[in-house]
Specification:
Layout: H1 12-19, H2 21-28, H3 31-38, H4 43-70, H5 74-101, H6 106-110, H7 116-131, H8 134-158, H9 166-173, H10 175-193, H11 197-222
Helix pairs in contact: 2-11, 3-8, 4-5, 4-7, 4-8, 4-11, 7-8, 7-11, 8-9, 8-10, 8-11
Family: Belongs to the TenA family.
Keywords: Hydrolase, Thiamine biosynthesis
Active site: 214
Amino acid sequence: MNDATNGSGATFSAAAWQANLPVFEAIRTMAFNEQLAQGTLPADRFKHYMIQDAHYLIAFGRALAIAAAKADDADGLVQFSEAAKVAVIVERSLHTDFFRSFGVAPAEFDGTEMSPACHHYTSFLIGTAHAEPYAVVLAALLPCFWIYAEIGRDILARAVRPNPYDAWIDTYAGEDFHEAVRAVIATTDRAAATASPQVRARMHEAYKRASQLEWMFWDSAWRLASWPV
């Protein structure tokens, strides 16, 4: 957290986290993450998750690039341009590392379309990035950073080791990722501190919707969800 407030004494991030704590708790305790921590998550569910995550990260990178273009200072431009680059690098590493480890051939990825939840989430991010002001865009992007960081550390604390998902756990529980997350929280709080009450309300709406979509993304992988028709 940082000291950027709107005069009420509470940062945007502190208020948003508290308001959406039930959503985080639902994610933390869902069967997908419980079994991932135990190392008992079926490989087909993790493969579904990783393929959809690769689709998601490309769209997430595009939304980050739009945030960079809308940044109100040079620091934000650099921060989110670099974040967009990292999202694409991570997506490519999925192909070379996770996909190989879990037997996902390039043709299988290319032939697998976005799930309904992934399509909904990425459409929400891209639409918000284009249509909303900088502060609201940051609020929509923040849950993906922050929830993953907290879930990663929570799973690390209770994970059975060795674990077939050790590489995933170590990535999101690692200090490098958490340092980047703290920087995004700080930038979002600074943007919120000077936002109008109306924009700040839209920030809360965007943060809530993105948090709900995080739950839907994991739930979709657990159910091996695809388009019903």
